[in-house]
Amino acid sequence: MTSARLSTLATLRDRIERIGAQGDALRPRRVSLGHAEADAALQGGLAVGAVHEVFAEAGRQSAAATGFVAGLAGRIAPRRPLLWIRQDFCEREAGALSMSGLAELGLDPRCLVTVCTADVEATLRASADALACDALGAVVLEVWGETQKLDLVASRKLTLAAQASGVTALLLRIAATPNPSTAETRWIVRAAHSPPSASWAAWGTPLFDAELVRNRHGLSGRWIMEWKCDERLFTEPAADSQPLAATSAHRPHQARTKLRSAG
Amino acid sequence: MDARVKPGHDESLVRQDNTDLPSIVVIKENNALKIHSLDEAAARYGLTIGLPLANARAICPHLEVFDADEALDAKKLSDIADWCDRFTPLVALDPPQGLFLDITGCAHLFGGEAAMLHLVSDLLTAQGFAVSAAIAANPVCARTLNRHVHGRIVGDGEEADAVGPLPVAALGAGEAVTAGLRRAGLKTIGDVAARGRHEITARFGSAFTTLLAQALGQGDYPISPRKPLPDYITEKRFAEPVSTEAAIMTALSRLAAMLVTALGRQGKGARRLEASFFRTDGAVRTLTVDTGQPVTKAEVIDRLLRERLDALADPLDPGFGFDLIRLAASRSEIVVQEQRDLDAHVHDNDELAGLIDRLSARLGTRRVLVHLPQDTHIPERAVLPQPAQQHLAAAMTAPWPERAEGEPPLRPLRLFERPEEIQVIAQVPDGPPARFVWRRATHMVVHAEGPERIAMEWWRAGGGALTRDYFRVEDEAGLRFWVYRDGLYEREIEQQDGKPVHWFMHGLFA
């Protein structure tokens, strides 16, 4: 067969798959995170082909939020290419994404393409192009600070593009507060303390205090999640890590906030 | 074809010619101002090139004198060469005032050699330059003819006859040789040619003999064109110059279709595209687009050019309109027809390459990067970012070091390009930090691990950099940092000297 026919065949197969998938658009494909309570709140897992927002409210939580987004990307698209669109200012303020760090988290730096843009406008245009390319597994947009450009209209465009191609968009906002958008889920992530342990024990596995503040199809909640670098999934932190008598610095977070359904 | 242009004659001078005031351009030579070039009115007064200015003023009291600006002249010549690109892609500079145009195979497009010569001369004269041109099979022969008279066309084999009657000054061999020839009684080139070759070489050198042979059409003088010849060229001339964006884009689309057909006939795809826009007033603007994989579809070329045009910092200024638009594939490659299985996998790679091409065309190749591992343990150099267009395949198969099982991450997720200095209280000599101040905030350390000692590469030149002791620390808020101390206490830093110890913040962990 000629190559033109073969690529047409491949395109047609993708479209048929997607039409079939759109038939049950009420139940998009979900990828479980590994953390039982979070998965229950998310109705099985994180929705693929949708927009998810992760906020780091203070600039110093940027590394925790980045780690959380990297973990989500690792769960959603483990073997497909990943596009990370980054604003130049993020690199100057919080440091550049390090490939060796990603490799240490268990992700594969071979599939990662980084795009550096000067401002939010260029970021949005690049993401529009990227979300149209269905060869990608996920697209991460890293934006610093408050900006008028990421409003309801922009977020709706991203959602539509993600739904059409099946590529998940992860929006990482650093030093910003949430504003109205059409994202499927919205998280606020902070760093969580490592549990107190003996001085010879290994510590330092990524531990996140992840608060799901908005969930379109489910409940919200707040959990401590640990990212297991070897198995590449989120779990509850080890049960014996919270001793009975802890100093005030190490008092574990209070019981998960009351579950309420999100609108 | 050889064209001599006399720069220094711009519009202002042309206007002043109407008042019939002679004008000259002077240049400083050996601490004296001498005439560099002059116009017909000045020539009629008997002034010659090389005459000192004082003599010139004595001969002719009313003179317009301009200072020579050689840099500007060179730039002007370069601009004219750009303009001559519309006739042939092979244009070479012959400084200070000449251009060589290789019109092999182009003359028929303009109605023949004579018509082309008149066209070029007329167009250049209309722009305000004084031009003389000649066509011959050999560039040196053309140049020799041109020095004497304008508008000669000499065919193959007739060079000796055409060049024979010309005076020896037309050869352009230099003052000393020309004077020597005249003193020897050789007034015309025919006289010199009639002499034995060895006599001429013995008296005037072999360089002159080579020049003579080339002028007579016997040797070959390859010109070095300014730009390499592209593989495929398509162009469109407009009788009515276009300046609207819609018309330009339509023309580019049609040219892209023609280019793709021409490439397809030989099974090739374009890797580098150049779109040149020629304005009616002579300015030329060229845009270049690179692609990662050979392009065989007209829509893709169209899209890439559109991205590049949109992303121009300095938008395309049509002026009074473009009268020629050219699209060339300056680099092309044979498209390998792979035996593809029905898997969508290969289709995906092409899609990704296409996306990278589009983003690179819009943002620039240095903003779309892949990362390759390097064989070094220095953290900031362990990963090398490279443009994704050329290195995608290498990045997909690069060998990354395996992480140690069961260990927490040993390298931070975010790495500062330039480590920031922090103030630390730590136990000497090898203790981890107990408290540190970073960006004017104090952090109390709760957990610490280290030191991980990384020595700089002493085998490289200038390897006097200090060894670093890295510590993974966590503060009371749960944030995890990667800090290092620059230098070892016993061996590298002498505290008694009063030199302070420097600690730096290098990265942040998730």
| CA-CA gap between termini of chain A | 52 Å
The largest chain-to-chain contact, stated as pair and per-chain residue counts, equals: A-B, 70 and 66 residues
What is the highest CATH level, the class of the domain at 232-355 in chain B? Answer: Alpha Beta
The assigned CATH architecture of the domain at 50-193 and 202-238 in chain A is 3-Layer(aba) Sandwich
Helix content of chain B: 25-40%
User: What general outline of chain B do the C-alpha atoms trace?
Assistant: elongated
How would you name the oligomeric state of the polypeptide chains in this document?
Answer: heterodimer
Rg of chain B from C-alpha positions?
34 Å
Mean pLDDT across the residues of chain B is: 84
What do you see in this structure?
The complex is a heterodimer of chains A (263) and B (510). Chain A has helices at residues 3-23, 36-41, 62-76, 88-94, 99-105, 120-131, 152-165; strands at 30-31, 46-47, 51-56, 82-87, 96-97, 112-117, 138-144, 168-174, 185-191, 207-215, 221-228, 233-235. Chain A is an alpha/beta fold and 263 residues long. Chain A has a domain at 50-193 and 202-238: Rossmann fold (3-Layer(aba) Sandwich). In chain A, the strands form two sheets. Chain A has a nine-stranded mixed beta sheet with strand order 6-4-7-8-3-9-10-11-12, with helices on both faces. Chain A has a two-stranded antiparallel sheet with strand order 1-2. In chain A, a hairpin with a 5-residue loop joins strand 10 and strand 11 (221-228). In chain A, helix 6 (120-131) runs parallel beside helix 7 (152-165). Chain A is globular. The model of chain A is unreliable at 240-252 and 254-263 (pLDDT under 50). In chain B, the strands form five sheets. Chain B has a six-stranded antiparallel beta barrel with strand order 15-16-17-18-19-20. In chain B, strands 5-6-1-7-8 form a five-stranded mixed beta sheet, sandwiched between helices. A four-stranded antiparallel beta sheet of chain B has the order 9-12-10-11, sandwiched between helices. Chain B has helices spanning 11-17, 40-44, 53-59, 70-84, 113-126, 139-148, 159-163, 175-183, 189-194, 197-204, 206-215, 245-265, 298-310, 345-363, 388-396, and strands spanning 2-6, 23-29, 32-38, 64-67, 91-94, 98-101, 130-135, 152-153, 232-242, 268-279, 284-295, 322-334, 368-373, 383-387, 414-426, 433-438, 441-454, 468-475, 480-486, 502-509. Chain B is built from 15 helices and 20 strands. Among the domains of chain B are: 232-355, Dna Ligase, domain 1; 414-509, no CATH class. Chain B is an alpha+beta fold. The interface between A and B is large, with 70 and 66 residues.
